[in-house]
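One record is kept unedited as follows:
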Amino acid sequence: MRVNFIMKSEDRTSRAHLSRKYNIVYIIDGLGMGGAERLMVPLLRNLNRQFFEPRVCVLQVKDGNPAANDIRALGMPVDLISVERLRDMTAIYRIRKYLKAVKADLVHTQLEFANSLGSFASKLLRLPSVCTIHIMPSQDMKVKSKIHQEIEALSLRFFCDRIIAVSEEARLFYIEISNVSPQKVITIYNGIDLTNFINVDRYEARLEVHKELGIPLDANLLTTVAVLRHLKGIQFMIQALPTVLDATPNVYYLIVGSGSHHDALVEEVDKAGVKERVVFAGLRNDIPRLLAASDIFVLPTLTEALPTVLAEAMAAQLPIVASAVGGVPEMDPDGRNGYLVSPGSPGELSEACITLLTAPEIRTEMGQNGWQIVNEKFNILGQIGQLEKLYLDLISKYAK
């Protein structure tokens, strides 16, 4: 489904004189299964090709870079410039050479390595640059990660023209820790392509997914989709599960994703004695289908700027149970579409899940409310419109 270009009528008139397309280069660390990476495909699919010619430059291979094939299927090139270390200064000049070769008009970077190195290379060529901050640092970050965060902050402060924070909380937090000018940082909520969820037959998905995963059709399904890292807090939901099962026995917990914390989570499942009720599904490319087969979405994360997967769960009309961290409260400001809990609290997680599991009418109402919220605030249409206007404004500014 082709999404129409969102631009005010006066902006359309003012851009009518454009004589060529502008080459937009997206630089990103990898094209794995993280939220930022998965957002690239719907963004590129809906970008107005009348004005922009996009291409993607990836710096690392993550999970095999599955999104790369989806992007190429859209007729857009995906190039690899391998960067193993953030302190690899040759990377800046290799990226600079690449940007010059592809005749970039604007560079949009995403994630740590790309923001740090891509913004520097853009500045060397006097190209306008946009950088998106997708994460919020945590006290649990390793020393190496903190050093990388400091390098990224310095690069964005001096080399990037506009910094996009994906939530207002992330914007305020980043301004505080980086000493960057507040005028330089703007909030643009990530958007998702709602057509991916509208076209899913919920009943058929439930029949197929429950059968495929060996889950009884009449069982209630709690689902988490995440990269399996300690900071995603999945261990706390596993710890909460015995209490949930005591109150509502016919429940299964589906964990979708892969990552370094997988084995630790398996041990946590064994320790909690819930091995028969937890399903590890691994990496999947059918997230809308899995969500349609679920009853409640759980995100027990310890830190988050704005979780894309939460918007996807809302689009699937699932009530949510999520940690009240980062930009998460901006997705559920008044409790209409779920329950927010304290991070790292198995007790609050179990209480919220039990409340929803024992009240199907509340689940339905919250799911419908979530759909309304995501359609109004986290639709890809709104994000694309703001990005395209920002691109044209910066290109025009540099042309003067």
